Amino acid sequence: MSTDPTTMTRASRGVYAITPDETDTDRLLHRVTQVLDAGAVWLQYRNKGASTALRAAQARALLPLCRAHGVPLIVNDDWRLAAAIGAEGAHLGESDGELGPARAAMGDGALIGASCYADIERARRAVDTGASYVAFGAFFPSPTKPHARRAEPGLLSAARSLGVPRVAIGGLTPDNAGPLVAAGADLLAVISGVFDAPDPARATRAFAACFD
Ligand SMILES: Cc1ncc(COP(=O)(O)OP(=O)(O)O)c(N)n1
Ligand SMILES: Cc1ncsc1CCOP(=O)(O)O
Ligand SMILES: [Mg+2]
């Protein structure tokens, strides 16, 4: 497995772990290490409660850990931070700015994701303006984001023709995620189902088994 960001193999099928809001950076690194050791293939740094300075420090701290595992680091909300620290990508939702400037600044190789909620037309536009992957959800009630809009699994099959990886998010557990993979999800994006599990490594492996 390559740990060079320019040549690392980018698996585009498997567990896409997203960090919980964690103020203690050492604890964040410890928790993420467990999940990467267990086989998560992408990591998103997301911390909705942190200051700008803490977010920059935590994102920077995660980068060598991700590199050591050959896992791309994707920064939520803020492509400028992603570019500044040399992360592999950024994830942008409807309040996070346009994809075009992010793509122009980060280059063709960057992994730039777009939240598409339950909107296939939004997904089409996102791909047309440079998204590397599209994310749909929430598919189930999310403990992390209880008011997230809901989506139906049929969206995942409808999005096959877009030709980019399809990510499912929202309230996923190892017990409910299998049908989403069957419907076409390439990546399962998970916060609480992994990080709030009694054994995050075991939970990561259980999610990964949904792809077997
Ligand atoms: C993989 C993935 N999918 C969706 C989201 C949600 O993005 P957004 O709608 O911008 O909401 P916040 O995460 O910023 O609260 C995501 N982060 N990652
Ligand atoms: C960021 C986001 N967008 C839709 S649901 C969600 C939170 C996902 O977290 P969890 O896996 O704990 O439901
Ligand atoms: Mg966002």
TrEMBL record:
<dbReference type="InterPro" id="IPR034291">
    <property type="entry name" value="TMP_synthase"/>
</dbReference>
<feature type="binding site">
    <location>
        <position position="77"/>
    </location>
    <ligand>
        <name>Mg(2+)</name>
    </ligand>
</feature>
<comment type="similarity">
    <text>Belongs to the thiamine-phosphate synthase family.</text>
</comment>
<feature type="binding site">
    <location>
        <position position="145"/>
    </location>
    <ligand>
        <name>4-amino-2-methyl-5-(diphosphooxymethyl)pyrimidine</name>
    </ligand>
</feature>
<feature type="domain" description="Thiamine phosphate synthase/TenI">
    <location>
        <begin position="15"/>
        <end position="194"/>
    </location>
</feature>
<feature type="binding site">
    <location>
        <position position="76"/>
    </location>
    <ligand>
        <name>4-amino-2-methyl-5-(diphosphooxymethyl)pyrimidine</name>
    </ligand>
</feature>
<dbReference type="Pfam" id="PF02581">
    <property type="entry name" value="TMP-TENI"/>
</dbReference>
<feature type="binding site">
    <location>
        <position position="115"/>
    </location>
    <ligand>
        <name>4-amino-2-methyl-5-(diphosphooxymethyl)pyrimidine</name>
    </ligand>
</feature>
<comment type="function">
    <text>Condenses 4-methyl-5-(beta-hydroxyethyl)thiazole monophosphate (THZ-P) and 2-methyl-4-amino-5-hydroxymethyl pyrimidine pyrophosphate (HMP-PP) to form thiamine monophosphate (TMP).</text>
</comment>
<feature type="binding site">
    <location>
        <begin position="44"/>
        <end position="48"/>
    </location>
    <ligand>
        <name>4-amino-2-methyl-5-(diphosphooxymethyl)pyrimidine</name>
    </ligand>
</feature>
<dbReference type="InterPro" id="IPR036206">
    <property type="entry name" value="ThiamineP_synth_sf"/>
</dbReference>
<keyword id="KW-0808">Transferase</keyword>
<keyword id="KW-0784">Thiamine biosynthesis</keyword>
<dbReference type="GO" id="GO:0005737">
    <property type="term" value="C:cytoplasm"/>
</dbReference>
<keyword id="KW-0479">Metal-binding</keyword>
<dbReference type="InterPro" id="IPR013785">
    <property type="entry name" value="Aldolase_TIM"/>
</dbReference>
<feature type="binding site">
    <location>
        <position position="96"/>
    </location>
    <ligand>
        <name>Mg(2+)</name>
    </ligand>
</feature>
<feature type="binding site">
    <location>
        <position position="171"/>
    </location>
    <ligand>
        <name>2-[(2R,5Z)-2-carboxy-4-methylthiazol-5(2H)-ylidene]ethyl phosphate</name>
    </ligand>
</feature>
<dbReference type="GO" id="GO:0009228">
    <property type="term" value="P:thiamine biosynthetic process"/>
</dbReference>
<keyword id="KW-0460">Magnesium</keyword>
<protein>
    <recommendedName>
        <fullName>Thiamine-phosphate synthase</fullName>
        <ecNumber>2.5.1.3</ecNumber>
    </recommendedName>
</protein>
<dbReference type="InterPro" id="IPR022998">
    <property type="entry name" value="ThiamineP_synth_TenI"/>
</dbReference>
<dbReference type="GO" id="GO:0000287">
    <property type="term" value="F:magnesium ion binding"/>
</dbReference>
<dbReference type="GO" id="GO:0004789">
    <property type="term" value="F:thiamine-phosphate diphosphorylase activity"/>
</dbReference>
<comment type="pathway">
    <text>Cofactor biosynthesis; thiamine diphosphate biosynthesis; thiamine phosphate from 4-amino-2-methyl-5-diphosphomethylpyrimidine and 4-methyl-5-(2-phosphoethyl)-thiazole: step 1/1.</text>
</comment>
<feature type="binding site">
    <location>
        <begin position="142"/>
        <end position="144"/>
    </location>
    <ligand>
        <name>2-[(2R,5Z)-2-carboxy-4-methylthiazol-5(2H)-ylidene]ethyl phosphate</name>
    </ligand>
</feature>
<dbReference type="GO" id="GO:0009229">
    <property type="term" value="P:thiamine diphosphate biosynthetic process"/>
</dbReference>
<feature type="binding site">
    <location>
        <begin position="191"/>
        <end position="192"/>
    </location>
    <ligand>
        <name>2-[(2R,5Z)-2-carboxy-4-methylthiazol-5(2H)-ylidene]ethyl phosphate</name>
    </ligand>
</feature>
